[in-house]
Design a protein that fits this description.
Layout: E1 10-13, E2 34-37, H1 51-64, H2 71-81, H3 85-98, H4 102-115, H5 120-139, H6 143-161, H7 168-180, H8 184-198, H9 203-226, H10 232-242, H11 246-259, H12 264-276, H13 280-292, H14 298-310, H15 314-327, H16 332-344, H17 348-361, H18 366-375
Antiparallel strand pairs: 1-2
Helix pairs in contact: 1-2, 1-4, 3-4, 4-5, 5-6, 5-7, 6-7, 7-8, 8-9, 10-11, 10-12, 11-12, 12-13, 13-14, 14-15, 15-16, 16-17, 17-18
Length: 376
């Protein structure tokens, strides 16, 4: 066991005869050792034992020891003592995730899955959590971390969608996950499945949120069809560029654009490939064409701003970054790029302000911390 494992902070106790915790609705079987969270100072005697220490210990086991021989007993004990524990933990995990306390949120979701492995809502919430965590890291420019959490999200989305009792919302959320990865075929399939699963549900039963989701899914399916985004050349172009075979990707996306000249996604992909090859002027023109063809994505503005920055067109670069930030005010990647722009313009004090702004949203942002250290 790793020395830093949370399991190291547990004691496993057999309660002495006569010790009664039934007042706390804790029905404990004989000869089953109870996991107990150690006090912060590490010292413990039985007189200090509280139900909360037992509950905390059980949650750690559920999160980190899925092969514990007493797992089913611990689940039953916790659910009988705290019937609303799943709802309480879910609300806590979502709150931690919103506050970007990601490690704690991940631990809670892991405990929830250990508590009820068959609950597909928990599995779906876990997928959404990893999906959002990946987005947060990608906004901060931490691409490798973002890719790793996208992989986690993909596995949990797959797990819930393969289940016979998968909730329709799983397919709706997974649809956006695949769109983010430019996998329009898989995304379309998810939205079509969502529509099929909800087609017999009345608008009244769906409610306003459900009606919005159904309408949005229909719009996305139509948009993918109308813009031919399932085209093999489009998919091949993305895969080539993603795998650092930019020239092959550019060849495929140009073939696609010959047949589909008004698809903004294709112009964006062209610009993306050219930007990775540092062909700044061509990339700039491609991103401008993407906007001309209808892109309203802040990331298009950000990519265009990078090209302007490298070409020395600083005023245009700042204009694009400010506009992107107005669309996503908490996107630390855009803030960092404004910092880089200020440095290129010879204004380290202004750059420092932007990197400090990044830390207000993410105190552990590696890029901002490094840049501020360099500016000392």
């Amino acid at each position: 066991m790793n020395a830093s494992s949370p399991l190291d902070n547990l004691l496993f106790l057999n309660l002495p005869e006569g010790m009664d915790l039934s007042a706390y609705n804790l029905q404990i079987k004989a000869n089953i050792p109870l996991p107990v969270q150690k006090p912060d100072n590490g010292d413990f005697d039985l007189s200090q034992l509280t139900p909360e220490m037992i509950f905390a210990g059980i949650l750690v086991v559920l999160a980190y020891d899925q092969h514990n021989q007493h797992l089913e007993d611990y689940r039953k004990l916790l659910l009988e003592a705290k019937p609303n524990i799943k709802q309480e933990l879910t609300e806590a995990a979502i709150l931690k995730s919103r506050n970007e306390d990601f490690d704690i949120a991940e631990e809670i979701f892991s405990a929830l899955r250990g508590l009820d492995p068959k609950d597909m809502v928990i599995t779906l919430n876990t997928a959404i959590f990893f999906d959002q965590r990946a987005d947060s890291y990608r906004q901060s420019g931490l691409t490798e971390d973002a890719d790793a959490y996208d992989d986690c999200a993909g596995k949990f989305y797959a797990q819930v969608m393969e289940d016979d009792n998968a909730p329709p919302e799983a397919f709706f959320n997974a649809g956006f996950f695949f769109l983010k990865q430019r996998n329009f075929t898989r995304g379309k399939e998810c939205f079509e499945t969502y529509l099929a699963l909800t087609c017999d549900i009345s608008d009244e039963e769906l409610g306003e949120n459900g009606k919005y989701k159904r309408q949005r899914a229909q719009e996305i399916v139509m948009d993918i069809n109308n813009r031919n985004l399932e085209d093999e050349q489009f998919k091949a172009a993305y895969d080539f560029i993603l795998s650092e075979q930019e020239e092959k990707g550019l060849e495929e996306i140009r073939k696609f654009l010959e047949k589909n000249p008004r698809v903004w996604n294709a112009w964006f992909m062209l610009g993306w490939g050219l930007r990775r090859l540092q062909r700044w002027e061509e990339a700039r023109d491609a991103f401008l064409q993407s906007i001309e063809c209808g892109s309203t994505e802040p990331d298009t503005l950000n990519e265009l701003a990078i090209c302007y920055m490298e070409l020395g067109e600083y005023a245009e670069s700042k204009k694009c970054l400010v506009q992107a930030l107005s669309l996503e005010p908490e996107n630390t990647k855009y803030m960092s790029n404004l910092g880089y722009l200020a440095l290129k313009q010879g204004n380290p004090q202004e750059a420092r302000k932007f990197f400090l702004s990044v830390l207000e949203f993410d105190a552990q942002d590696k890029i901002a911390l490094q840049m501020l250290e360099d500016l000392e």
